[in-house]
Amino acid sequence: MKKLYFLLLSISLTLSAWAQAPEKMSYQAVVKDASSGLVTNQKIGMQMSILQGAEGTAVYVETHQPTTNSNGLVSISVGTGAPTSGSFRDIDWSKGPYFLQTEIDPAGGTSYTISGKSEIESQPYAFHATTATTAENGLKAGTTKGQMMFWDDEAWVKLDPPPNGVDANLSIRDGQLAWTKVEVAPKYEIGLNNDLGGYVFYVAPDGLHGLVAATQDQSAGGYWNDAFSLVNNSANHNAVGANFTDWRLPTKDELNMMYLKKDAIGGFTIDVYWSSTGSGSYVAWGQGFGNGIQFGTNNPGTGRVRAVRAF
Questions:
Q1: In the chain, how many domains are there?
Q2: CATH classification of the domain holding 221
Q3: Domain check: are 199 and 278 in the same one?
Q4: Is residue 186 in some structural domain?
Q5: What is the domain extent for residue 273?
Q6: pTM of the full predicted structure?
Q7: 147-165: per-residue pLDDT in tens?
Q8: Distance between CA 149 and CA 159 in Å, rounded?
Q9: How far is it, in rounded angstroms, from Cα 117 to Cα 113?
């Protein structure tokens, strides 16, 4: 059997963009046989162990089954394999030095016959367990033991857990290694939402857009042509609804959606409500909130008004 060798090319330490995502280390090696020929396009078995000290205890062990490429190169991410011992995320990097031990089975199994060991000389900033640890290049790492930090314009803020809408992106700010905040749009749900002016009765599939109904009528009865001027009069809204100026009459379909959720929205009577949908010069669509029937009625006619707004 030919004796195989492998040559370590690089170990790079990669921070995930999200504070809650698994950390990982990128590893590459070139596998050669005893004649220095490349072992190409071949599935191999690998066991990666992180040792605390050159001859120390393995604090984390995982396995991979990658395939070398046409240049004999194999690439994996340590921290994303199948764990057999320990937890990669629980490693206390302040208690180094740590070494990466690589074992290979060229047949693709778990009979590891080739091994090598390399010191992890440059540890990821986010793995450090000390506050504002100074790294070799003089930058400060915004981390604390068991925590991650981000720079919120003027101060370090602890992520435990990361607050909603925070994406811990790595950047340099005033000579410090900083986690910067990225706003993420909130997801909305059906229900009362005073921040949006009323009751959310429809939410789009993306969770970012929808429709809100006012929680009180804007008119107890009037002509259809007059209804359009009533919906945005702040005097016709409660204190929450008066904060918005983009109220409008609901369309025929939107009015029916409101009817189906009338009990949850609240404040409706069994009278006819106007929609914004017209037909010709003399017909407008309304809906009876007693029986749910929609119908076109000759204008003039009278009906109640309930405003809607989109977000």
A1: 3
A2: 3.10.100
A3: yes
A4: no
A5: 191-310
A6: 0.44
A7: 345 445 555 555 444 444 4
A8: 5
A9: 14
